[in-house]
Amino acid sequence: MEIYKTAKQMQERSLYWESQGWRIGFVPTMGYLHEGHTALMRECRKRCDILVVSIFVNPIQFDNASDLANYPRNEESDMSVCRKAGVNAVYFPTPDAMYPPGYRTYVDVHEMTSILCGASRAGHFRGVTTVCTKLYNTVRPAVAVFGEKDFQQLAVIRRMVEDLNLPIEIVGHPTVREKDGLAMSSRNARLGAQDRINALSIYHALKNAAVSVAAGEFDAGKLISDARQTIEAAGSAGIDYIEIRNPDSLLELERVEGPAQMFIAAHFGPVRLIDNMKISA
Ligand code: AMP
Predict the structure, then answer these.
(1) What residue numbers bound the domain in which 10 lies?
(2) Predicted confidence (pLDDT) at residue 281 exceeds the cutoff of 90
(3) Mean pLDDT of the region 114-132
(4) What is the average pLDDT score of the chain?
(5) How far are the Cα atoms of 104, 109, 221 from residue 263, in angstroms, in the given order?
């Protein structure tokens, strides 16, 4: 497995692969890899000749210094996960190399980034779209795979790729869950034992909403207040949002009459978790 630490080396290698007519597949991550990430790698592997994974905890997408400082990291285990997954190359840049002194350029997708996670995390999506653009220009993928766990991120990336005419196929992969239903996340490692149990209420709230819709409850207000009750009863340290939106337009829904996705962000102990689920039939 090849490991590249600078954009120049990574890009030279990608240009070589391109010149050989090989199709580059890409899975961008922030490391502390789990089975959600490896599922994305497997999906990407089917669609490419050369599989590249980036590991970069992107400082400019964090609006909170302690969240950035406490984000879990484990380079050694990540490299071993990538090796086992048959990754051809890992791109592992440093923050200083990504954003050297004098760095001034940002990519901004409007409107759809000011709702949901964008409403509470100022500048978060600007950080995501900026780093993805830089990663694309360095890794030069023909295909990139993203998880539906970060549903809004996937929608924003699809919009950006279309708006900027980037020649990349964006593939979404369903959320990978623990056996009990909790969405896998690097942040789960920071949950204490009781918070880990309580956090499962996010999954239960989403599941209950889907069951209620199937039983004929279409009022978004009612579905949301039920979900809120479930999560509050489990001792959440604060609900950031619970919303029901159209999965394509991300417009808010008052009634579940067509495609509908429920989105939840809630704190358990020191950790902010997000999850989402299709609740319409
Ligand atoms: P992260 O390292 O959390 O930035 O995630 C890197 C990629 O993995 C993103 O496309 C995420 O949506 C995806 N991902 C993270 N957790 C999961 C999961 N549980 N299931 C599916 N994809 C995931």
Answers:
(1) 2-173
(2) no
(3) 97
(4) 98
(5) 33, 20, 13
